[in-house]
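Handout, section B. The chain below has 102 residues.
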Amino acid sequence: MFSNGEEETLFTDGTVQRVSTNGERVVEYPNGQREVHTATYRKRRYPNGTVKIVYPDGRQETKYASGRIRVKDPDGKVIVDTTLGNPTYPQVTPEHTNGNAP
């Protein structure tokens, strides 16, 4: 523990975990991945530039180094998928709209 209240833990595999006084937790893995946990999201940054964010409600947002963005709803269904600025949206069916088609 540091004098400012932050904690740092070093694991035998080289992983480093830091916990700040505001509750934010940062984990740095030996393979270059970095994960941040806050009250509002969990974010993992991969060495290739990809960033994946998971929100408390289960939504997932993945931003790839290529510029592609994929968003999944809490059930894991893709709701947005872009490739270099060209968005594609899955076909909306009645079961996705609770019977209330737009």
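Note. The chain has no helices and ten strands. Compare this with the example in section A.
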